[in-house]
Each structure stands twice: as C-alpha cells, then as structure tokens.
Specification:
- The protein is of the alpha+beta class.
- It has 4 helices and 2 strands.
- 32% of the residues lie in helices and 9% in strands.
- It has one domain.
- The longest helix is centred in the last third of the chain and has 13 residues.
Length: 127
C-alpha cells in the first residue's frame, strides 16, 4: 500500500505528467501504481484513466491532470501532447519558429537542376 503522494509521484515518474487525486478518505492508503511501461502517446487522458486507474476508482472522487506549466487540463487531450507541454516548460518550444529553416535541407527539384540530372521517367518495357 502507498500514500497519495507516493502514487502521484510514481505516475509522474513513469507517465511524465503530474496528477492530483481527490480522495474520499484522505487517511486511507492506496494501491501502488502497478504499471511498468509508459502509456502510449496516442492515448487520450480519458483512455489512460479508464485503463490505468481502475484500482483507484472507488477510492477517489476525482483526479486532476496538470499541464507542464502547472495549470489543470480543462479537456481531454492526447498524452503525447500533454507530455510535450512538460518538455516545452523545461526547455522551450519543440518546433522551430516559422521563419527559421534548417540549413541542411536541400529541395530535390533545385538539386536536379543544379546537377544537370533530368528527372527519371519510366519507359515502358518491351515484351
């Protein structure tokens, strides 16, 4: 058995986002968070709650999930997007700014013209 804080920390350590349980009886112990692998990125919060928190359903009134900036999540969203918010809060934006283009990308159409190689067209086979 574990305390509320231990379960919340175990979820953060494994899943990568913070939660807070609203328990019916705050003094009661909770079962340990038994999962050993992170939930899939494409799952939504509601799917994660239904699958992973079944053991806590009768012990808690509710659960609040938090974004990386510490604000509660107001609606259902994919776990991958939720986890990205924690990365952005710690390290800054994930995507490059719209004006910035990577310096190592070459457009193929321009490369063909520069190298003098004509585009490859398939010729019909003889039978």
């Amino acid at each position: 058995m574990a305390t509320k804080k231990q379960v919340e920390e175990a979820i953060f350590a494994l899943e990568g986002f913070r939660v807070e349980f609203d328990l019916l009886d705050p003094k009661r112990s909770l079962p340990e968070y038994e999962w050993r692998a992170m939930a899939p990125q494409r799952w939504k919060i509601s799917e994660w709650k239904n699958e992973r928190l079944a053991a806590y359903r009768l012990l808690a009134k509710g659960l609040t999930v938090y974004r990386g900036d510490g604000s509660p999540v107001p609606r259902d969203m994919q776990l991958g997007n939720l986890r990205d918010g924690y990365y952005e809060a710690a390290y800054g934006p994930i995507a490059r700014a719209g004006a910035e283009k990577p310096s190592n990308v070459i457009r193929m159409a321009g490369r063909e013209r520069a190298s003098g190689v004509a585009s490859r067209e398939r010729k019909p086979r003889r039978r």
